[in-house]
Structure formats: structure tokens, C-alpha cells
Amino acid sequence: MKPVATMPAPVVNGIRGVFCDIDDTLTSEGRLTARAYAALERLRRAGKLVIPITGRPAGWCDHIARMWPVDAVVGENGAFYFYYDAARRKLAQRFLFDAATRFANRDRMIAVRERILREVPGCALASDQLYRAADLAIDFCEDVPRLPFAEVDRIVELMRAAGMTAKISSIHVNGWFGDYDKLGMTRILMQERYDVDLACEEARYLFVGDSPNDAPMFKFFSNSVGVANVADFGARLANPPAYVTRGRSGAGFVEVAERLLGA
């Protein structure tokens, strides 16, 4: 990973939009700082497309799409995208699966959830589970003492044994039924909403993240950036980003924004 300050000026000047994770990328120690939030607004005022790509739930994403200075949001690791249509004064929602499929999958998750909580002492159902539409989130360090990686791996193992896709974020293990991820829904959003084929135009966009569930984005975008705490995952990160910031978490995101705006 190269310092983000070394990203060539012609590349920086060509960036049209910024995709970013939220937890431990925009936030710092679980909080969204004023500087990180202001960086979103500054990027958007500069004409950049700004889209969070997160594992957080539908309920949170409703708020983010309506209230934050962003153009859209991809949530639950690619289960949907939302955006606020100001002209119609309406939140637009696009789920990958229909409501009947989502409800059936949630019923299937109950047995998986109970087995994980029984067999992995110290973990907990994520506090935001109530607001989720498509996945199961198991907390391993947000509201519980941090579990060893071996226990986190056990959660992943139990989800996959039940036929779920499982991904590790900086705070949760997320599991869902279906073969999708953050990248897949980002590509759908860009094609449907902005008529942009990312397969052809990925170099005009930048992604900022911090953890293993960002790996598909790190691999796809040639201009991918990890905030400094991405190094905490070490060899567990199969596809590291091309660049890395000096600052951790939200401070690292501000560093990326200042690189883009300064150029």
C-alpha cells in the first residue's frame, strides 16, 4: 500500500466520485466527527458524487439517504441502495430481493442466530439488528468486549455451514442468504441511477474502507484507499487497497478528502 499523498495529480483530478465505508472509516471510536461529516459535504459541494457503502441496516440508511450530504447509500453489504429524490420529496428504495424472499430469509436466520449465540460465548446480536431488512449481524466488539479472532472465525464458520455468505467488518460479522456483496450493488446503483458502467469507468471513482468486508471494493477499484487502521487486519485482508492514509478512521477519511480537494 502506497501513501495516499503519492496518488498522481492527474489521477486525483480525474476522480468524479467517492465511495466510502462508514464504521471505522468515516467514524472514529464509534462516533461521526464534525470534521469527517464536513469532509462529505465539502466533497459534494466540489461536485463529487458521494456514496457511503456500508454494512449498516436499512433503518440507518433511510436516515443517511435523507439527512446526510450524500447522493445515495448502499446498505447491508449490498442488499439494497437508497437515495432521496428531492424533486419528488420521496425516498427511493431498490432491494436486490423482493419482500417475500427477504421475509423468508429472515425466518431462516433465526436458527442460525440462536446457534451462534449459544456456541460462541461473549458475542451478541448487534444492537441495530432490529432495523435490518436482509442480514444477520453478530457483534464481536461494538457493544461487547472484543472477541479473539478465533471466535470471530467461529461465527463465520457457523454462518457458512448454514449456507449463508459471511463477511467480517470492523465491529460485526454479517451473514445473509444470497451471492451478493458491496461491489455488486454499487455497480447496479451506478448503472441504474447514473448510467455509469463501472467496469469501464472505475478509474474515475475512488473507494475508502478499512476491513475485510471491503475486500471486493479494494480489489475492483484501482484507486482504492484504506484508512490506517486497515493494517489491523494484516494478512486477514485478502485484497489490500492500493493506497493507505496516515490517519486512522475518520481522520484518514479527512486526509483523503483534503487530497482530492487540494488537487
Helix fraction, binned, reads 25-40%
Distance between the termini: 21 Å
What percent of residues are in strands? 15-25%
CA radius of gyration: 18 Å
Give the biggest beta sheet. Answer: 6 strands, parallel
Low-confidence stretches: none
Mean pLDDT: 97
- Compute the number of helices: 9
Beta-strand segment tally: 15
Helix-strand category = alpha/beta
Strand order of the largest sheet: 1-15-14-13-2-5
Written account of the structure:
The chain has helices spanning 9-13, 34-45, 58-67, 99-119, 149-161, 182-194, 198-201, 215-220, 249-262, and strands spanning 2-3, 17-20, 27-28, 31-32, 49-52, 73-75, 80-85, 90-95, 124-125, 136-139, 165-168, 172-176, 205-209, 224-226, 243-244. With 263 residues, it is of the alpha/beta class. The strands form four sheets. It has a six-stranded parallel sheet with strand order 1-15-14-13-2-5. A four-stranded antiparallel sheet has the order 9-10-12-11. Strand 13 (205-209), helix 8 (215-220) and strand 14 (224-226) form a beta-alpha-beta unit. Helix 2 (34-45) packs parallel to helix 9 (249-262).
